[in-house]
Amino acid sequence: MAKEGVEKAEETEQMIEKEAGKEPAEGGGGGSHRLGDAQEMRAVVLAGFGGLNKLRVTRKAMPEPQDGELKIRVKACGLNFLDLMVRQGNIDNPPKTPLVPGFECSGIVEALGDSVKGFEIGDRVMAFVNYNAWAEVVCTPVDFVYKIPEDMSFSEAAAFPMNFVTAYMMLFEVANLREGMSVLVHSAGGGVGQAVAQLCSTVPNVTVFGTASTFKHEAIKDSVTHLFDRNADYVQEVKRISAEGVDIVLDCLCGDNTGKGLSLLKPLGTYILYGNLVLTPCNPHLLSFQWWQVEKVNPIKLYEENKVIAGFSLLNLLFKQGRAGLIRGVVDKLIGLYNQKKVKPVVDSLWALEEVKEAMQRIHDRGNIGKLILDVEKTPTPLVSQKQRDLFSSRSESSRCRHKRGVGRWGGRKCRQGSAGQGWRRKPEVTK
Amino acid sequence: MAKEGVEKAEETEQMIEKEAGKEPAEGGGGGSHRLGDAQEMRAVVLAGFGGLNKLRVTRKAMPEPQDGELKIRVKACGLNFLDLMVRQGNIDNPPKTPLVPGFECSGIVEALGDSVKGFEIGDRVMAFVNYNAWAEVVCTPVDFVYKIPEDMSFSEAAAFPMNFVTAYMMLFEVANLREGMSVLVHSAGGGVGQAVAQLCSTVPNVTVFGTASTFKHEAIKDSVTHLFDRNADYVQEVKRISAEGVDIVLDCLCGDNTGKGLSLLKPLGTYILYGNLVLTPCNPHLLSFQWWQVEKVNPIKLYEENKVIAGFSLLNLLFKQGRAGLIRGVVDKLIGLYNQKKVKPVVDSLWALEEVKEAMQRIHDRGNIGKLILDVEKTPTPLVSQKQRDLFSSRSESSRCRHKRGVGRWGGRKCRQGSAGQGWRRKPEVTK
């Protein structure tokens, strides 16, 4: 991995709040004007595990690629629910802080480490990074970097790797999705949920059952076959439609849902637990979650009922279990589907690095439909006061909430704003 | 299901022992001469759960097909380890005794129930039966009956359904076996083990690790890639050859092997528990087995390690879960592979109905390589006294132990004889 330099902490949050309204208005290289030295770069730094106030935008020494690495000038970074868990320290064997969060990004190759083949300076790429993605420049082993199609935007490319590889591998590598099958996916409006829905549509006659907050239903109703409120008794809802249950249950919720999900499986069906479960029972933060209540499963019950239970962690597969080669094959297939216009990442909204807290609050509040993206070149949207916000809220939303790609319209739902700070808020920038 | 008539118990075992040597020598319709009435048939009856002495050959009223059933004149029946568990009562929700055991047979269609389509009298068939297979005549729903190829013998056909459908569904429906993968199978010399080995050879570059009693190794060594003694530390043996482990573990042993099997899985690998686990903890017979010690599995561990655990019970799938249509599709594919000479059932030995105890003892002792078949038309081999047996044992075995199909020779191993009774034994008839 790239060698990280000494941090020069910059209390960006306070600076932004103090200097609200004084931000330069120019687009493009937002924030880079602060760097007096080309050997430095901006990055989001997590100073310690905890709340949003542990996040800062900081100057760090420019990383240089080691043997086998690519140096990437980052254009956009993906924000996942997992990043929220990392911030809270709710992960197994947490790394030491301070750290730069983020596991995926897109950008342009700026330098090649020794022994790197197959890439050239200037290539447009997307990449997995084992932390350190939320920065202006990252270095990552060439095994985790993929060229992107000409017509794929950097925002789309930053929304692609985690969600689509996870969805594809669960459906086709673990569960063997085939014609005529049915799939239940929770958080159908999220990044993985929308990737699952799109991939299911590439197989004939697949029924998708989804759960999502009711306010998202209008926006995503065309992407799934049956949609339930996330707080509804979805077991009964599914059984009412399909008494036998479903062939595949994808569960990122866990807790009591493991039993519910298993109970919904048809014979030969597969339950997959994925996503954000990097928790350890000894972790004090756990008490705020129910995930440690996951029930153990008796293999004899699986035998009697002809059921399959699986776990899926893409990051472990990549960074602990050495499956980069397998995953490159999956990315190749996914890019093929993108080129055939069969899949397309759904981007919820773009945020400047300095807006990471608001972005994280939005994913915490499950306000997003599709992926939240940190746009490295974006200038932070000026903060608005409570008075301005009241004015903002009273207007019609329709003129500011643009149409979503691939999932219909946002319709009349309220654009949920970040609520990280006190008194000042930014309005979210929805995708182009 | 067919209506069963009143039993007329016949203490066959005692009769055979008393009348040893007086058995009529004619081949063909062995035993049927005893029936004075064409409205009766011979069947193996389990009088109650317990030891071998609970098995009898009995006259029973001729069953007649109900609506949707076929009446089959049985030629051969498959004997599975599961039948041994049934005899002991080691099954979940055991049926009432007396009962006729047996779950599969082959024969000729003799009559059609109402509304049966697709079959004609005289068709050569194999069938699943929910008990009652070990008889001269069975009736079973048409959903569980399959026509057999012209060149498939009745012995082969009786050895086919349980083992090959189980092996195929585990490898291709549950685990998604593909090129370059590796499989660990226990009891590699048994019926399922040999079916697994053959099916793996239909996929390019699949490595098969097998465990089996050492005396079987010479006979089956060509059917698997790596063979270990069943009492060896196969985890270490496998890891010595493949440090990463294997992609698929098929486990009919259970107990502490669940943990061992899971530990051997590569990331994205699948562990399948199958076969004979129809036990309940409240069953007193359980104390003689270790299977209730199956460890529960923590889904979070599956998540962290990217592993899959599955259970597979063909009989539940057929008779409780209504998957006859799916299984007919699998049988069609398997018959296609048989016609292409890519698979061929391995028959260990043929036994008359009256020899069921010896046959069952042989499977209990794990003496078989491939399938044990009850050949309904076979005349029981005369019993030999201890003196004759000593003489028999002292001779070279090679002249009597014929070559096995598809698995090389029996070589110099001792033909294991049944040991059900006291003082008298039959020598086994190995396959033609």
Automatic annotation (TrEMBL), chains A, B:
Domain Enoyl reductase (ER): 50-374
Annotated segments matching region Disordered: 1-34, 393-432
Top-level taxonomic group: Eukaryota
Entry annotated with the keyword Phosphoprotein: no
InterPro entries linked: ADH-like_N, ER, GroES-like_sf, NAD(P)-bd_dom_sf, Quin_OxRdtase/zeta-crystal_CS, SV-ATPase_mito-regulator
SMART domains registered for this protein in UniProt: PKS_ER
Biased composition regions of type Basic residues, renumbered to the chain: 401-416
SUPFAM superfamilies, A to Z: GroES-like, NAD(P)-binding Rossmann-fold domains
CDD domains assigned to the protein according to its UniProt record, in alphabetical order: MDR3
GO MF terms held by the record: oxidoreductase activity; zinc ion binding
Gene3D superfamilies (UniProt xref): Medium-chain alcohol dehydrogenases, catalytic domain, NAD(P)-binding Rossmann-like Domain
Basic and acidic residues bias spans: 1-25
Keyword terms: NADP, Oxidoreductase
Family indicated by similarity: Belongs to the zinc-containing alcohol dehydrogenase family. Quinone oxidoreductase subfamily.
Name used for this protein in its record: Vesicle amine transport 1 like
Originating organism: Sus scrofa
